[in-house]
Amino acid sequence: MLAVIGVARIVWGMTTAFGSAHAHRLGGIEYPGPDGGIWVKAFGVRDVVLGAAALHSDETVRRATLKAGIAMDLFDAGAVIFAARQGMPRRAARIGILMAGGTAMFAAAGPGLLRLVEN
What we know:
The chain is mainly alpha-helical and about 120 residues long. It is about 80% helix and about 0% strand. It is built from five helices and no strands. The protein has helices at about 1-20, 20-25, 40-55, 60-85, 90-119. Helix 4 (about 60-85) runs antiparallel to helix 5 (about 90-119). The protein is globular, with a radius of gyration of 15 Å.
């Protein structure tokens, strides 16, 4: 399960880091904005690093990465909610909450559900 999460984070991270203009357009946000598109690229790089760490050979590193990723995704969802209240386009807010909240829920519930299925 951690390998699936790791690969998914790497794919998503590479997509947002190298396709930030497309990610902005998908959310209905003008690109580049006042930040020059750097923030979505930074989130992409962060997800690539988290994905790579989720594939680490040491289980302690993988579990710590999973917990850190969940915390970061929940923080991201909160930041999107705050931004939506400050005028972020609704479509972008919905996508952001779906992505961040969905990833956090999948990462948190996935290992437990997998253990249930295996038993």
